[in-house]
Design brief:
Layout lengths: L2 E3 L7 E2 L2 E2 L7 E4 L14 H23 L5 H10 L3 E2 L4 E2 L4 E2 L7 E3 L4 E2 L4 E2 L2 E3 L3 E4 L2 E3 L4 E2 L4 E2 L4 E2 L4 E2 L4 E2 L7 E4 L4 E5 L6
Parallel strand pairs: 5-8, 6-9, 7-10, 8-13, 9-14, 10-15, 13-16, 14-17, 15-18, 17-19
Antiparallel strand pairs: 1-4, 2-3, 4-12, 11-12, 19-20
C-alpha cells in the first residue's frame, strides 16, 4: 500500500461569504476492481497483518454495542480507550455511528454535540484504493441528526451543521452549513435572509 497525502486548502472570505475548506486525507492504493474486498488489510500498516483485522473486529463490536448506551460518561470512557480524543461536555447522541476502522482519528472538542443517528467516517473505500483522514470537530459545534461527516474534514469552533447534511468539506469558525453536499449558509448568529 502506498499513501498519498492530500493538502488542506485555506478558506477565504469573498463578499462577506466564507468558502469551505478542502479535506485532508491519505490515499492507500490497493488495486481494483473493489478495494473493499481487502478490508482486513486496512489497519495492517498500523497494527500488522494479524492484529490489524482483530483490531477492526474489536472496534466494530465495541462501537456497535455503544450506539444506544445511555451513559455519556461510560461512552466517553470506552471511546477514549479506542483512541478517540473527546473534550469535556461532549454529547454523542443515541444511534451515532463512529468509524470502527480508525476511531483513533476522531477528535471532538469541548461541549460539541453529535446528533442522533449521525455518522462520522475516517475512511472511505473506492474502487482501487481507500482513503483515511482525521476528523476534527471543534469546540461548541453541533452536528445535526442524520448527518454524515466524511474522512479528513475539520469543522471550525462553533460550526453548526443542519440535520441530514453531507459534510464533504471543512468549515471556518462559526459557520452555519447544510445540505447534500453542504454549502455555506451564513455565520453563526447572523439572521437568515
Amino acid at each position: 500500500m502506498t499513501a498519498v497525502a492530500q493538502k488542506r486548502g485555506a478558506f477565504s472570505v469573498e463578499k462577506g461569504r466564507s468558502t469551505l475548506l478542502d479535506r485532508e486525507y491519505d490515499e492507500h492504493h490497493l488495486g481494483g476492481p473493489n478495494a473493499h474486498q481487502n478490508w482486513y488489510r486496512a489497519r495492517n500498516h498500523l497494527d500488522g497483518p494479524v492484529l490489524g483485522p482483530l483490531r477492526l473486529v474489536l472496534n466494530y463490536v465495541v462501537i456497535y454495542a455503544c450506539k444506544h448506551l445511555p451513559s455519556l460518561t461510560l461512552k466517553h470512557w470506552i471511546f477514549r480507550r479506542l483512541g478517540m480524543r473527546l473534550g469535556r461536555g461532549v454529547t454523542i447522541a443515541s444511534g451515532v455511528t463512529l468509524d470502527y476502522f480508525f476511531p483513533d482519528l476522531i477528535e471532538i472538542g469541548d461541549h460539541t454535540i453529535v446528533g442522533m443517528d449521525a455518522m462520522i467516517l475516517t475512511h472511505e473505500f473506492l474502487h482501487d484504493r481507500f482513503r483515511s483522514g482525521r476528523v476534527r470537530l471543534g469546540a461548541n459545534c453541533l452536528v445535526g441528526a442524520n448527518s454524515t461527516v466524511l474522512a479528513g474534514v475539520t469543522l471550525g469552533d462553533g460550526t453548526i451543521v443542519s440535520a441530514m447534511s453531507l459534510v464533504h468539506k471543512g468549515t471556518p469558525l462559526g459557520a452555519f452549513v447544510g445540505g447534500v453536499p453542504i454549502r455555506f449558509l451564513r455565520r453563526r448568529g447572523e439572521t437568515a435572509r
